[in-house]
Amino acid sequence: xxxIPAKTPGFAKSLFPNFVWDIPTDHKTLxxxxxxxxxxxxxxxxxxxxxQFNAKGTFFCIGxxxxxxPDIFSxxxxxxxxxxNHTFNHLKGWNVKTDDYLNDVSQTDNLITTLIRPxxxxxxxxxPPYGKFKSxxxxxxxxxxxxxxxxxxxxxxxxxxxxxEQCLNNVISKAKPGSIVVFHDSxxxxxxxxxxxxxxxxxxxxxxxxxxxxH
Length: 215
Known about the structure:
Blueprint: H1 10-15, E1 29-35, H2 42-52, E2 58-61, H3 63-68, H4 70-78, E3 82-85, H5 98-115, E4 125-126, H6 135-143, E5 147-148, E6 153-154, H7 164-174, E7 180-184, H8 190-206, E8 210-211
Parallel strand pairs: 1-2, 1-7, 1-8, 2-3, 4-5, 6-7
């Protein structure tokens, strides 16, 4: 049984009002996000699937994966999706000294800045791996100009104990206009992701929703 709920409760959001949990809107808009890439084959499949529905997403990338797959990272940018920082080594902030954590984030930011065209309007966004970091870490990152983007809905696509059907229901039953939904373009998540993502895009498209990147 998952301790973390698929839907982030309001009281949790109220405890950290400076974090972005959702995007208030009067329109039928969802914000699909993808953590842990770029991953060969998986991320490329995600990009193709999003394109079929004219959907834009936000990719919170691991620096080391950008380094090993810069061509896939470039394709994410070229397709008009947004990019966020997810540390260089997928660090759990609770277990890392703040200076080491910030250096790891900075390493990824330098790589992103190098690969993104200078003319592009790159927003500094950050999502902590596992959703866990120390208050000193989050404060320092915000002082550096980062928007801390968390989520309204977790798909649990990475969890092998969660069936594809359960994963789909997590999103279908919980997402609402303005929801930020978490998926993972990773090998661990691909079984659930390949089942769920097309069905989520189809379900909400049929109901008049659009899918936008976070800016």
